[in-house]
Target: Alpha glucuronidase N-terminal domain-containing protein
Amino acid sequence: MTVGITYREDSPQIVFAVERLVEALREIGENAEMVGKEQLLTAGGIWIEESGLEAAKLFGELSGELQPEGFRIISAQREGRPLLVVAALDEAGAMYGTLELAERLRGCGSLSEVQECVMNARFPFRAIKFNLPWSTYRRNESFRLQIETIRDLGFWQRFLDRMAENRYNALTLWNLHPFPYMFRTANFPLATPFSDEELAEWKRYWTALFRMAKDRGIETYLVNWNIFVSESFREHYDGEAISDDTFYHYGDSYSTEQIKQYTRESITQLINEYPDLTGFGISLGERMNDMTPEDRQEWIKEVYFEGIREADRPVKFIHRAPFSVDPSVTRDAIESSDVFEGPVWVEVKFNWSHAYSSPKLLLTHGGSNGMEGYWNPPPRNYKITWMVRNEDFFTLRWAQPDFIREHIAENGQEYVGGYFVGSECFIPGKDYSHREGSPHVSWTYAFEKHWLYYMLWGRLLYDPSTPDRVFENELDRRYGSPTGNQLLKAYSAVCKMPMALASFYKFTWDFTLYAEGFLSTGEDEFNNGQAFISLQDMLGRETFDPSYLSIRNYMNRVLQGESLEGYTTPVQLAERLEADAQRGLSLITGLSIKSPTLECELCDIEAWAHLSLYFADKLRAGVSYERFLRTGDESERRKALSWLKAPHAAGHWDNLIRVTQSHYHEQPLLHLGATPFSWERMRPMVQDDIAFVESQSSAGSRV
Model:
């Protein structure tokens, strides 16, 4: 059977979605052809209508139920044949509606079985945070090895395709100083180190990237770190040149009138030379340690705001909330400005660098107090956008849809415009963790391996009511029915581990927690690669979530006879972790492995389960050891040893090594500096816990 389709052929966004729709039709045994609207309305088919006006004449007014980027799928009959209409108010809505229709066709297998629906975007800003591997904020081999991949437009085509399919609508590209890679300024030509030929190649790259994004309904933003200039600028225009070793993101202000002029002119030139670039963003506070809040904001106004004002067109703006500033200074500057197009997106780090801790907002960047001043009273011309930073798992796949839904429900107030999803320490380009040549590898890029992670966040940010069945269907499509239901439930159970660890083990900045490695560098960078969370670390650390009790606070309450009501105790947390791990393992036991890639997914689920079991038994060991210290009861020390040894904690870690060695090798990890990471490398530290408890005696107890 041939299905007629009518759509606007001059819309790149709709054309992109129709290509996916045609693929879906082919999968269910249907061919597709372009037909005129009149023929389609007579004989049935698929009509994609992005203005909403014509569909409204036939099917009723749409403006009352649809919002920007929203859509309605209508099912009707013409001469006994189905007519499916995707009605929207804009091209983005038509694109998303067409993608939804393709998905529904794959699920039901027939045009006549497609169910009607209305969907609107929950948030207007649904962004990926993507750190570029050049002029980097962080420095590590894990960034250097990504340069070739991220310079390849083939990578970006696939990445942007996946973004659009998952309903993301903003790509934010971050590095210290982007301008030398994009153009040569008239007044500071030597600030750019590239030849004319090299610069022309860079310009082709950026122009194509921004256009590809626009063709998929994705806005693009460049975000930098304020008072930074290139090495070439320092060499040719600054008499007090600073070496790269000292010119880094953290430090006192580095500003001259020439730097202000160069940055201001660069902003203007950037906007004028790249018309498909949507906007720009700044990180107020970096390289400004010695400046007052007022001086910092004045520098931004004098340089960035004025550079935007001088441009030929308005742009959108991302303003990171300063982490050590009175909110009134920044919000006054934004609310009194008239240089921006649309609302300003004010970015706030959710629970600092570890959003996978709690859906409750307990901490912001720098541990700032008073951040609520950004949203109370409600802002007039900006929206808060939560930065969901992931510095906690880069290798193991993660999927926990209920955490995302709870996060959105808890933090989706009227003043919130949306979310950023991404990492400072991981670029999802080249996959450098998996063993080369493995039959597991059916993907080219890391983001394709982590496809479910990106799908969950994107689809739920667009519509938090999206049911688990949507994700289960995609798992079924990849691995065969009825795999999806068990797989998603297994992931959902074992992937609670990083949130449990982050709620229990207090953290601050990026490297103070890396959940999948059970690592924390403390407050000192890298710590010579010795970052494993020891039993002593757990005993001495407070909890992040105040509703959790640390081991010592728990023991205080137990020994003093105080109530435990309303708290999650270490014992309860251990029981919950073990139950989740066992549930996850039971769900994947007996699953028919129909592909090597499915085997890879099952290995990741098993790895999370062993991490959960290890954490659970280490908590139990900590409770017993702390009781020994308080009471001198030697039997409690023996219990602690039992929990730490195989088959308990040490056995679980050995199982973790076994399952991860089957498909992963040592890899660079920013948290450890030059020291590579693997779970096997941490085994001596697992044994150190045992040796520590064995070396203690009642003579050293805290009775």
Summary: Confidence is low (pLDDT under 50) at residues 524-529. The chain has three domains: 2-119, 125-466, 497-700. The first helix runs from residue 12 to 27. Residues 281 and 664 are 36 Å apart (CA to CA).
